[in-house]
Specification:
By secondary structure, the chain is of the alpha+beta class. It has 4 domains: 27 residues; 87 residues, Nuclear Transport Factor 2, Chain: A; 98 residues, Nuclear Transport Factor 2, Chain: A, CATH 3.10.450.350; 113 residues, Glucose Permease (Domain IIA) (Distorted Sandwich), CATH 2.70.70.10. 23% of the residues lie in helices and 34% in strands. Strands 11, 14, 15, 16, 17, 18, 19, 20, 21 and 22 form a 10-stranded antiparallel beta sheet that branches. It is elongated, with a radius of gyration of 37 Å. 24% of the residues are buried.
Length: 433
């Protein structure tokens, strides 16, 4: 029975071999049966090869066309760069660089290059034909070769505005986390300023704190140019979340508010220094000079000499000069019975003297080591009706909330931004889980 089946299959295979299309169809199902009929081909040996190189004549028309093709170059102006160095990387030889800088108005415009500026150029036959870049004033600066000479021009451009969303987690510092998330430094500074009344970014941050932000980004021809205003932000510090929404009414200045319309602009900043560390807190301590336990009625911020000191609130300069152990000190008087002291200064900012009005965030002096100080630092005091208070724990008064008649407009403007923050934050949490 098996021999009969084999004979039938073999006959069918031989018939299919006469028809190539059928042989291909039957090759797979009968492979196991027809394998007995395969024959081993002898080894044909190595294949002999040889290389043939022939010179092909290039048409004169093709050669002219290739040399006439313009080439596009792009370079970034680095810190420490010179204009000739950038021009050389862009393909301009020394003669072109000198001719460009000698063109009327070109030298003044080229000086607008700043570190980070993207410079674009075209060359042809090894010669610079054009160069252009976008300056910090949103102007397109260009230099073009016309009739063998360079001409410079500048014109305003219209940037397109997009809303960027980012989220990140604190591992060491705010700026390290924003860098890792791709958030521009300008936006990171706004985060620190907005929440400065609730979070001390020098001592309150914890690993695992999170932020979510929506901010403006401006583009030119698809290329990011600069960041703009922070539009909305969430910041979670020690499991407590703060939210800020930018709102600007049609007939007044804008500001940052909580979702219920409370003003996030505090009457006082938590710290008079942007970046520093606390070397001595409020309370009892062993005085480093007197060598005895006594009350320390302020907060000391260690910082290098010359570090800028900010006014923590709007006020009037009540005193600016030398005073005993304080050394060079500034006393600001604020509304509501508040006053602040800034001691051991190296010097005062220009124009700071008794009777001058200052605004929150204004630079009023510089960190020093004057008076009774064993090292460079700022001694900061906060007084409420002539009583010493701890500025790190005191609940700071807030500015006025959204006016009642603008609440509907505020909610309409804030809800889309709040929804974007929630969407990004929830998506990020879901990915982490």
């Amino acid at each position: 029975m098996n021999e009969a089946k084999t004979r039938i299959v073999t006959q069918r295979y031989l018939q299919a071999a006469r028809r190539p299309w059928l042989a291909a169809a039957l090759a797979v199902p009968v492979f196991g049966v027809v394998a007995a009929f395969a024959t081993v081909q002898p080894n044909p040996g190595p294949v002999l090869t040889r290389s043939v190189v022939e010179a092909l004549p290039l048409s004169a028309d093709i050669a002219v066309q290739a040399s006439a093709t313009p080439y596009f170059h792009e370079e970034r102006f680095q810190r420490g760069d010179t204009v000739p160095a950038v021009l050389a990387r862009l393909g301009a030889d020394g003669d072109d660089a000198r001719a460009l800088l000698a063109a009327p108005g070109a030298r003044q415009l080229v000086r607008l290059m700043r570190p980070g500026t993207t410079v674009q150029a075209t060359t042809q036959d090894g010669k610079l034909q054009s160069l252009w870049f976008l300056s910090g004033t949103d102007s397109l600066t260009s230099v073009e070769r016309k009739d063998g000479a360079f001409t410079a021009s500048e014109r305003k451009v219209t940037l397109s505005r997009e809303v960027e969303l980012r989220t990140g987690q604190i591992a060491s510092s705010l700026f390290a986390a924003t860098d890792a998330a791709g958030v521009p430094d300008n936006v990171a500074s706004q985060i620190a300023d907005i929440f400065a009344g609730d979070v001390d970014f020098q001592r309150d941050l914890r690993r695992g704190d999170r932020f979510t932000v929506a901010y403006e980004m401006f583009y030119h021809e698809g290329r990011p140019i600069r960041s703009g205003r922070l539009l909305a932000a969430d910041f979670t510090n020690q499991r407590r979340t703060y939210r800020a929404i930018w709102f600007q009414p049609a007939d007044g200045p804008g500001g940052y508010y909580s979702p219920d319309g409370k003003n996030l602009h505090k009457a006082f900043l938590r710290s008079p220094l942007e970046y520093s560390r606390i070397s001595s807190g409020f309370g009892m301590r062993n005085h480093p000079i007197l060598q005895q336990w006594r009350a320390h009625k302020g907060v000391d911020y260690a910082a290098p000499i010359g570090t800028r000191v900010r006014a923590t609130g709007d006020g009037v300069v009540d005193f600016a000069g030398q005073r005993n152990g304080y050394g060079n000190v500034i006393v600001l008087r604020h509304n509501g019975g508040y006053s602040t002291y800034y001691a051991h200064l190296n010097g005062f900012a220009r124009g700071v003297h008794r009777g001058v009005r200052v605004a929150q965030g204004d630079i009023i002096g510089y960190v020093g080591q004057s008076g009774w100080a064993t090292g460079p630092h700022l001694h900061y005091e906060f007084h409420v009706r002539n009583e010493y208070r701890n500025p790190l724990t005191l609940a700071m008064p807030a500015a006025n909330p959204v006016p009642h008649h603008l609440l509907i407009a505020f909610f309409q403007a804030s809800q889309p931004l709040a929804a974007q923050l929630d969407l990004l934050k929830n998506t990020d949490v879901a990915l982490l889980e």
